[in-house]
Design goal:
This protein is mainly α. Helix content is 71%, strand content 0%. The chain has one domain. The longest helix is centred in the middle third of the chain and has 50 residues.
Length: 90
């Protein structure tokens, strides 16, 4: 005796794998995976840019401080205090 779905050949889905919607779910799945990887890479690169920008600002601040000290605009005590402040910001 033949079962109810044996006449169709591939079981209950008639060989269509979910009536043709399986590829859509696969596409959405891989799109989400790729989006997550891109978002992670952007996050990491932005985080490293923030660190490098803060170091650049500290270096430029120190450069300006040294120039002001060399010109005589500030004395040694002010220079040392401001240098400590800049180093604490890093």
């Amino acid at each position: 005796m033949m079962g109810r779905y044996e006449d169709w050949g591939y079981g209950q889905m008639m060989g269509y794998g979910g009536f043709g919607f399986g590829w859509i779910f696969t596409l959405i799945f891989w799109a989400l995976i790729i989006w997550a990887i891109i978002a992670f890479v952007k996050y990491i690169s932005e985080k490293s840019n923030i660190k490098s920008n803060s170091n650049d600002q500290g270096d430029s601040a120190m450069k300006i401080l040294k120039e002001r000290y060399a010109k005589g605009e500030i004395n040694k005590e002010e220079f040392e205090q401001k240098r400590k402040d800049i180093e604490n910001m890093k």
